[in-house]
Amino acid sequence: xxxxxxxxxxxxxxxxxxxxxxxxxxxxxxxxxxxxxxxxxxxxxxxxxxxxxxxxxxxxxxxxxxxxxxxxxxxxxxxxxxxxxxxxxxxxxxxxxxxxxxxxxxxxxxxxxxxxxxxxxxxxxxxxxxxxxxxxxxxxxxxxxxxxxxxxxxxxxxxxxxxxxxxxxxxxxxxxxxxxxxxxxxxxxxxxxxxxxxxxxxxxxxxxxxxxxxxxxxxxxxxxxxxxxxxxxxxxxxxxxxxxxxxxxxxxxxxxxxxxxxxxxxxxxxxxxxxxxxxxxxxxxxxxxxxxxxxxxxxxxxxxxxxxxxxxxxxxxxxxxxxxxxxxxxxxxxxxxxxxxxxxxxxx
Amino acid sequence: xxxxxxxxxxxxxxxxxxxxxxxxxxxxxxxxxxxxxxxxxxxxxxxxxxxxxxxxxxxxxxxxxxxxxxxxxxxxxxxxxxxxxxxxxxxxxxxxxxxxxxxxxxxxxxxxxxxxxxxxxxxxxxxxxxxxxxxxxxxxxxxxxxxxxxxxxxxxxxxxxxxxxxxxxxxxxxxxxxxxxxxxxxxxxxxxxxxxxxxxxxxxxxxxxxxxxxxxxxxxxxxxxxxxxxxxxxxxxxxxxxxxxxxxxxxxxxxxxxxxxxxxxxxxxxxxxxxxxxxxxxxxxxxxxxxxxxxxxxxxxxxxxxxxxxxxxxxxxxxxxxxxxxxxxxxxxxxxxxxxxxxxxxxxxxxxxxxxxxxxxxxxxxxxxxxxxxxxxxxxxxxxxxxxxxxxxxxxxxxxxxxxxxxxxxxxxxxxxxxxxxxxxxxxxxxxxxxxxxxxxxxxxxxxxxxxxxxxxxxxxxxxxxxxxxxxxxxxxxxxxxxxxxxxxxxxxxxxxxxxxxxxxxxxxxxxxxxxxxxxxxxxxxxxxxxx
Lengths: 348, 532
What we know:
The structure holds two protein chains of two kinds. In chain A, β4 and β5 (65-69) form a beta hairpin. Chain A is α+β, with helices and mostly antiparallel strands. Chain A is globular, with a radius of gyration of 24 Å. Chain A has eight helices and 19 strands. Chain A has helices at 42-50, 96-101, 110-120, 137-149, 167-184, 195-201, 219-224, 229-235, and strands at residues 4-13, 16-26, 31-36, 57-62, 65-69, 72-73, 81-84, 155-159, 187-192, 204-209, 212-217, 239-252, 255-271, 276-279, 287-296, 300-307, 314-320, 330-335, 340-343. Helices cover 22% and strands 39% of the residues of chain A. The longest helix of chain A has 18 residues, at 167-184. In chain A, α3 (110-120) packs across α4 and α4 packs parallel to α5. In chain A, the strands form four sheets. In chain A, strands 7-8-9-3-10-11 form a six-stranded mixed sheet, with helices on both faces. In chain B, α2 (21-48) crosses α15 (358-368), α6 crosses α7 and α21 runs antiparallel to α22. Chain B contains 22 helices and no strands. In chain B, 49% of the residues are buried. Chain B folds into two domains: 59-258 and 279-305, MetI-like (MetI-like fold); 311-532, MetI-like (MetI-like fold, Orthogonal Bundle), CATH 1.10.3720. The two termini of chain B are 42 Å apart. By secondary structure, chain B is an all-alpha fold. Chain A binds chain B through residues 47, 50-52, 75-83, 85-94, 102-103, 132-133, 135, 137, 140, 144, 147-148, 150-151, 164, and chain B through 158, 160-161, 163-171, 175, 178-179, 182-183, 185, 258-265, 270.
């Protein structure tokens, strides 16, 4: 278990600044998910930590010992950082067993360790003799994970390791990775553009935007109280309505709602679609609305609504499919739980 | 268009399950042409009788030839692997400055015919005759055959592999040894086999060096009264060597390289820092370029400045003779390019449109065999065949063009295949769905997309034909003097200064054509020269 501390990290390429004074800390044994759109600099952040690129400024320290800083660049092979590449990057000229044993020193019982690691990632020991070409995508990624964990790295970096897998497999391999990391107790940084992945796997989530870390929080806090409207939309479906806050309450097109944190003045109110409940039209306290569209997913559905009080505001409600109204028409809306709000654009 | 006409038009072009019979028939022509010299050689040997062939082969001379050929082939292949791989790694993967220039310098020797390089070295000093000189010339001349595939393999390497190795604790040098080199092995081996094949079929360079191999001895047997039996016996042994190389190369190719596991991310490959090794590395590459390019070109230029009388045998080249030789070289090159392309086109269409039709593979493989048939064997077999069956064809330009077509079919095939694949089936289908009939599809979609590639194939055949010596020497009609024939004639009588103008024009012609080809299509256009 190791602590990773990054301070004021800057990286510029010919095309511009990719990382702009990024700072973060990952507690020992925790998994930090770095969430960012493509081009946000998340892969660069990972490659700087691994030592594949040199930082232009800032420091990276593991357990308080700097590995990168002004005038310092410890080469990747001496950092003891595991790196799991996007598509595994298995050595095609080596068998599965030799791939896994690649980072193990001479001596020691490599075969036993390989078997142990294969078992940990949920593959039969007989796979050691296979060639990587004959593995499915999910199996390749499991082997790559075993290879990464073999030398017992202090820190494991995961570079969108599930993005090449199809949906069903992705969940399975995610589970394997989470379990294996827990068993080894390694500290980990996972880079992803998939908010569900970041929220479900991370002990903490850092949102990276244009090279800057805009928010670092635990998943629940990030989803419930995002820093700004953009983060709110990035981490999940969001309904944003203009409103007027008075302490613990806010007045908007959906009525008077409870605020998670007291505010004053003109605000933008964030309501998650799953907080909005469809009730019979005319139910006391409900906001009148008309159902415009239904996007059906099976387990639930997204219902597009237009409010009678503010027809130009688009509102989406997430409804369990068994609670879906039988036909389009008029309905009432109620909001469950507290909502959060940001100072309105230009009002701050 | 009536409904019936529409259906007819569709079936005429749409990839139906079975190719039209006429196409199959014309596509079989190249394969048959390639088989012809092999069959004639075998027939000659059979006619001579097993006992006679055995007696001809069970001689000390054949033993010497075997030792010479094997020793030279193996050492040249080894030298080329070391030089080509080293150069490729330095140029592609280190921080050595000037990589574009170096890359050009490493490929350019392909445009200098080996017999011209041989002439250059021998004219410096007779020291370069024999095994040493032959090894020197072939190593310099054929190192690009290893350099090109290895450089391509280096560029195709997934950077994540090296990064993973580094993250797993390998310092740079160990990462090169454990990850990079194993990936280059197929490219190195493939290149080495091509070098071996080229050494086996080379004739002019060794004849000038007075180094005896199977090709020079077959030529000698032919000149000394054309004893079909002896030439055929030696040709059989040579063919066996060539086909062994070809088969090994084919097996290597079908096994494929390591390829990528997964697609990986395309990222710029990291460069290894040379540090204190920068100077030695630059010097080494400089020496390689000097040996492969500087010496041949420099020597030719030197002899250009000498008056003919300064040469051992004064045989002055007249501007008229030079012009005539250039014209016939260019003429033969263009004629051969046209004929080869026309012959290869049906087969290329077959192999791109009906790749899974069983006969396609057979016909293709037949044409590929051409790579393993030495020019001297083709030439002698064509002479035998025409003298016996159609004497008027003997010593005709037509026969020479046919020999070129057989020799360089693989070049044309690779180029045409690439060109035709440019016109993706889906594009055609899109055009058809937009209402275009097949003549319009052909004119507006297929041809515009394929024409540049067809041009590249023609240019490549032109280059290799204009620098070809063996078949030209044996088959050119009396009175046809090409640049290659002139150089050969003058250098074999030690008239080095007299040969210089022809050599200068030939090298300039081939370099210009190659440069134009490379500039338009990239070094990859020479992929055909590497056997696909």
